[in-house]
Write a structure and sequence with these properties.
The protein is α/β, with parallel strands linked by helices and 202 residues long. The chain has a domain of 136 residues: Rossmann fold (3-Layer(aba) Sandwich), CATH 3.40.50.2020. 26% of the residues lie in helices and 28% in strands. α3 links the parallel β3 and β4. α2 crosses α3. The radius of gyration is 17 Å and the shape is globular. It starts with a helix and ends in a 13-residue tail after the last helix. It binds zinc ion. The site of zinc ion has 7 residues, from α5.
């Protein structure tokens, strides 16, 4: 499966000259929600991710996503694995399980995101679940920004990665971009102007 081509076709992988929220400039940008706009495509991607998890032999009781970004990916992954789908959401700064969702002591849960950058939100979700007695057995994401090493690759985990090294992390593909501080950006040198992703009506 050519995941990058699927993201490009969906308009989820933008190429140009972008101003990131960090202040850095980049030649690419992932608009993750766009790839899930087509439910059939979302289903296909989640099925592929589910296959990777299933073939690892890990027993799974439920998938939990951090809202809002992870909800659709988590739901589709749960469907593909034929397990429960729940989500945690931020309330007063903390990730919480609400809306009548419950987890049981020892329940084996995968935390699923649409994209893992450093894994900060996924880790907050995992901590909230662990406090309730659940066993977070793995992390999963459709796309990986390349800071954390995913299962099946030999890439090094970078210091920015917040996921625990001993817990498996499943993702379909790595999307590593060139990032530059504005003063060292080759695209700026060429005279083009960095734009905020989404600011051109796309
Ligand atoms: Zn630039």
């Amino acid at each position: 499966m050519d995941v990058e081509a699927i993201y490009k076709d969906a308009g989820a992988l933008l190429e140009g000259h972008f101003l990131l929220s960090s202040g850095n400039h980049s030649n690419r940008y992932l608009q993750s929600a766009k790839v899930l706009e087509d439910p059939k495509r979302a289903e296909m991607l989640a099925q592929k991710l589910a296959e990777m998890i299933r073939s690892s032999g890990l027993p799974v009781d439920a998938v939990c996503a951090p809202a809002l970004g992870g909800v659709l990916a988590g739901y589709e992954l749960a469907r593909a694995l034929d397990v429960r789908s729940i989500f945690v959401e931020r309330k007063g700064g903390e990730m919480e399980l609400r809306r009548g969702f419950e987890v049981h002591s020892g329940e084996r849960i995968i935390v699923c995101e649409d994209i893992i950058t450093t894994g900060g939100s996924a880790m907050e979700a995992a901590d909230a679940l662990a406090e309730l007695g659940a066993d977070v057995i793995a992390f999963a994401a459709l796309a990986n920004r390349g800071f954390c090493r995913r299962q099946g690759t030999t890439a090094e985990t970078k210091p920015e990665c917040k996921l625990p090294r001993e817990v498996p992390f499943f993702a379909l593909a790595d999307f590593e971009f060139s990032m530059y501080p504005p003063e060292a950006c080759p695209m700026c040198v060429e005279g083009s102007e960095a734009v905020k992703p989404g600011s051109r009506g796309n």
